[in-house]
Structure prediction request, 60 residues.
Amino acid sequence: MNKQRWIHILLMLISALIISSIVVYFYVGGAKGLFFSAMGGVLVLNLVFSLFFVQKYRKG
Prediction:
């Protein structure tokens, strides 16, 4: 495992979390927005990580 690969994965996950939380925060608004952004962020992280993992390791 390369360190660069892990750094790239972490950057992707963090950016996905930030974008989703911002979008949901403005869409829902207020404290509800924070709660739903936390929930949505977890889902987005899982989705992005699984997609990235499958793409990387099917190619080898």
Notes: The CA atoms of residues 13 and 47 lie 10 Å apart.
